[in-house]
Amino acid sequence: MEKRNGASPENWNLMAHMAVSFGDAVVADKLLIRIGDQWSEDIWQNSSDFESAKQWAKQIEPVIARKRPAEESAEANLRTPEGQRYNAAFAEKIHIWMQPCLDDAAGSDLGSFELLIKVGKEGTIEEITGGGNSPLMSCLGHKINDFRLSKQAVFNQADAASAALK
What we know:
Distance between the termini: 37 Å
CATH topology of the largest domain: Fusion Protein Consisting Of Minor Coat Protein, Glycine Rich Linker, Tola, And A His Tag, Chain: A, Domain 2
Order of helices and strands: HHHHHHEEHE
Radius of gyration: 21 Å
CATH class of the largest domain: Alpha Beta
Helix content: 55-70%
Number of domains: 2
Strand content: 5-15%
């Protein structure tokens, strides 16, 4: 569109507003930086809405940028036989940790969430990232983090290899 019609702050504002509306912080951040102080009152209504969108995108974009390589690594690992074995073994651990969380949340809307867990060569949890809107997220996240801090191996050393599991 820009090649056809030239650079247009109005179009940048429209696209940035759409990106914010759809929760795409990466696209929104790039466009909002490009917009600078050329925000459109017709689109944003007032400067506080525009500034709020800029703050949101600025805070969320780095989190998403760090999460993307972890997701790609997890997906690649899951396509290997070794990754599938690790995923199955890890699913057993997650089930054990999740059951008390499910019991505590009985009758609640469980929503959805995603956790990305990086398991290192020694079989210990190295990193946890994720997000979502589920009461299970906090409970399970604490249990996994406690396990991570204990430095226990998720897998025995004979089976352990660097893996990122989703």
